[in-house]
Amino acid sequence: MRDLWKQWLTNLGWVQPLLLQTLDLGLVLALTYMVLVIVGERRTLWMVRGFIILILASALSAYLRLQLLNFVLEKLVVGSAVAMAVVFQLEFRRFLEQLGRGEFKQLLQPATSTTSKPDSVVDEIVDAVKELSQNRIGALLILETDSPLDDRYFSVPGVKLNAEISKELLQTIFQPKTLLHDGATLIRGSRIMASGVILPLSERTASRQLGTRHRAAMGITERVENCICVVVSEETGSISLAERGILNRPLTSSKLKELLEARFSPVVEREAVAPSLRSLGHQIKTRGQLLISRLLGLLSSSRKKK
User: Which helix (H) or strand (E) holds 284?
Assistant: First the structure.
């Protein structure tokens, strides 16, 4: 019996290389999926596809022993990797932070559509910002666009309010004599969640015309994707909108309203390039069943011909 067991294990020696190859392929697919999740938008998907094509071409040239072509392609792959690290530095920073915190589930979650806000909320925000701008009163608003922000992203979480949003309340908060006017105000949906929030400043070299509020707006949007910031300059009264570390300025109140309505429209503004794991598994299962049925059909037809 022992000899038969040893003989059976010996005959299954070909299974180990197959399992290793399957594991290798599975890890590559998982890494590719995570890259697509990091990218999050279709407009940059073609760059990722081009990079993947370069990697495949380099592997093929190495397999065919085309030494000169393989040398050139390897240099292109390295250069492209460095360029992508620069272009997607914010995304890769978020990836490394989530990896360091052990948030593996979020790494596999595709980008979702933005949370819609009623038109009345956008109107209240724009009207308040317009009044603050005309009176040259500095203000900084954080607007959540997707999931709630974690307090860990703030240097100081501020004072909890959880009040219904209104232009009068926003104007009152940022009056110079109030205790909360120096910090940022966090808006979630149609409610003001907190005020006096102290944000981390951007590490980028900014123009001397930009004050602490602008650098704070750039800093939080560099670190967190699911928020945008509206800034009113205390010196000039100019209006700015920060997203993904980029400052759009100066803006008129009508332009700000247009951008906010487009950003918080109930229509999906950003389509995920990577499907959810459930839909991805369903696609793989369906295509696998189709492939197996076709192979069985070919085998049966070949047997009938014989």
Answer: helix 277-305
Q: Is the pTM of this model over 0.70?
A: no
Closest by alpha carbon to 225, among 151, 122, 145? Answer: 145
| Pairing relationship of beta strands 184-188 and 139-144 according to DSSP bridges | parallel
Exposure class string for 184-204: b at 16+ Cβ within 10 A, else e: bbbbbbeebbbbbbebebbee
Contact 207, 53 (CB under 8 A): no
Question: For residue 239, what are the β-bridge partners?
Answer: 232, 251
141 has which bridge partners? 185, 230
Compute the distance between CA of residue 284 and CA of residue 183 in angstroms, rounded to an integer.
49
Q: Could you tell me if 193 and 211 are in contact, meaning their C-beta atoms sit under 8 angstroms apart? A: no
Cα(203)–Cα(243) distance, integer angstroms: 15
> Phi, psi (5° rounding) for residue 65?
60, 40
pLDDT in tens, 243-283: 888 888 889 999 999 988 888 765 434 444 455 545 555 55
CA 126 to each of CA 36, 64, 101, 199, 221: distance values in angstroms, whole numbers, following the listed order: 35, 62, 37, 22, 20
- Whether the CA torsion 175, 171, 247, 251 is positive or negative: it is negative
Rounded CA-CA distance 144/81 in Å is 31
Neighbours of 33 (CB within 10 A): 17
Q: What is the pLDDT of residues 288-306, one digit of tens each?
A: 566 566 656 655 665 555 5
